Amino acid sequence: MWYVPLVLLLLVGCTGENMETKERMPVLFVSHGSPMSVIDDSGFSSAMQQVGLNIPKPKAILVASAHWLDGTKVSCSAEPETIHDFYGFPDELYRLEYKALGSTELSKRVSELLGVGCDERGLDHGAWTPLYHMFPDADIPVVQLSINLNQPVAYHYALAKKLQPLRDEGVLIIGSGSLTHNLREAQWDATEVDARAIAFDKEMQEVLAKKAFSRVVEMDLPNFTWAHPTLDHYLPLVYIVGLVADEDKAVTVFEGYQTKTVSMRSVLFS
Asked: 228 with 150: CB under 8 angstroms?
């Protein structure tokens, strides 16, 4: 694994303890990586802790995760279970629970904005593993949005734009996926990063900084099909760029690599 934690400086004009605010909430793309980040003392876990400390405290959280691929639905469980949707990891991981409540208010609001139904679903690891570090007290309600893989990228980008009012209603929206996600060529014990992952990561960093989002929607990036053989971990990024406002700036809150082929770059827009 390769981790490079970054210092977070005045991400949205506040530091120290979380604080209630009526400011527009930022939006966050997280490359969530291996579930081991929950129990490993890694740069990623530290970076997520800092994000939680340095952004305004949300009223609620909406997560579009790469691990709920079932049409377009919103979760509406009042007490969502912690889903351990991974295999072959230490028993300690399966004993962990993230006991955040759901939010009937947010579920209804998302349903109205998007015209979709709800599902009594829990929180998959794409949602709860980064939140475990960001908000360890689990005192903020969490709702998930599913991703429909049968729809084109432009559909997800347009859908995200309908969610923009939530940013002014105290809702933190997170897209949880991976900047690159080629597990077919992953090597868990590798000591080098694949040059194609590095090239894609660098190009995408520039695209996000310049807000050249048409390239994200059109998947106009070198090595795209290698970096994302499937779109499940890419589409959460599409949701986030669809939520970015003209005045927002991109701040990388973490960068690094796992398994030779997976970029962990995580980006906050505020």
From this structure: no
Which segments of the chain are extended strands (E)? 2-5, 27-31, 60-65, 74-75, 118-119, 142-145, 171-177, 250-258, 262-263, 266-269
Rounded to an integer, what distance in angstroms lies between the CA atom of residue 245 and that of residue 247? Answer: 6
How far is Cα 156 from Cα 240, in angstroms, rounded to an integer?
10
Say whether 265 sits in a helix, a strand or coil: coil
Q: What percent of the chain has pLDDT over 90?
A: 84
- Closest by CA to 5, choosing from 55, 44, 35, 34, is 44
* Structure tokens, 246: 């003209």
pTM here is 0.91
> Would you mind telling me the total number of residues written for the chain in this entry?
270
Residue listed under structure tokens 């701040």:
251
> Which position has the token pair 């007490």?
79
Summarize pLDDT for 225-262 with one digit per residue, the tens: 999 999 999 999 999 999 999 999 999 999 999 889 99
The residue with tokens 């949005």 is 145
The hierarchical CATH code for the domain 2-269 is: 3.40.830.10
Q: Taking the alpha carbons of 79, 113, 65, 170 in that order, is the dihedral positive or negative?
A: negative
Query: Domain extents for the chain?
Result: 2-269
**Whether 269 contacts 249, CB under 8 Å:** yes
Token duo for residue 13: 């004009």
Give the phi and the psi of residue 138 in degrees, each rounded to 5.
Answer: 50, 40
Residue 257 has phi, psi (to 5 degrees) of: -140, 155
Q: Which amino acid is at 84?
A: H
| Summary count for the chain: helices (H), strands (E) | 9, 10
